[in-house]
Amino acid sequence: MASVLLVEDDPVIRGALIEVLSAHGHVVHSAALGFEALREVTARPPDVVVLDLGLPDLDGTDVLRMLRGISRVPVVVATARDDDAEVIKLLNAGADDYVVKPFSGGQLAARIGAVLRRTAPAEPAPAPPAGDGSGSPAAPAVARTMRVGELVVDLPARSARLAGRELRLTRREFDLLAYLAAHADQVVSRRRILADVWRQPYVEDQTIDVHLSALRRKLGERASQPRYLHTVRGIGIKLVAPR
């Protein structure tokens, strides 16, 4: 059961979605305005936000950006457009998923479930034994801070710095960068990224490309002149220290 904030100004649609999501076991709160939604997220943080873009007081994309400024809560956006430019715009603004109107309550519930599975904290690995009695050392602990060249990724703080400058990353951008840093100097396939970062077997390749492009921009590089993020054609992505 999850706490859902439904941001929808149409009372008929809002009532129908509240009924469906409640039937799926969620606790649903609602807001009809963008400013009201921002207050709700601050005062009573939900597990996930469903955000309609056609709000009367604020543009929905602006609400999404403001949400990202105050919270890492997963956001599923409801949009009337499904063209590439719109999807890229929403993902860059911080959306975790989207549904295209008209959509069913069951589809929305499934999207919410998928987002919650992808964004759930990873289960901590069981602590290795101190030794096996044969004198073999215990397995090393996972690094909490990783360094690749001048890039420092701090897992507990969920922050990253490049040459001392903090990088302003979205939740998914940080997850992707941290994963690549944990596998520095290794080529990581897109399939592994989908399974370990997105935690689902299929995501449009363009989704990964959008996040990689955003990371490159924030790292001060381009795909044609990579420093940290290198694409190995047909195989995957590698994070390395610049030489």
Automatic annotation (TrEMBL):
Keyword DNA-binding (UniProt): yes
Keywords: DNA-binding, Phosphoprotein, Transcription, Transcription regulation
Region listing for Disordered, in residue ranges: 120-140
Residue numbers bearing the 4-aspartylphosphate modification: 52
Matching Pfam families: Response_reg (PF00072), Trans_reg_C (PF00486)
Domain of life: Bacteria
InterPro entries documented for this protein: CheY-like_superfamily, OmpR/PhoB-type_DNA-bd, Sig_transdc_resp-reg_C-effctor, Sig_transdc_resp-reg_receiver, WalR-like, WH-like_DNA-bd_sf
Domain Response regulatory: 3-116
The entry's DNA-binding region: 143-241
UniProt domain OmpR/PhoB-type: residue ranges: 143-241
Keyword field contains Phosphoprotein: yes
Coiled coil: none
The name this protein goes by in its record: Response regulator transcription factor
Organism the protein comes from: Streptomyces lycii
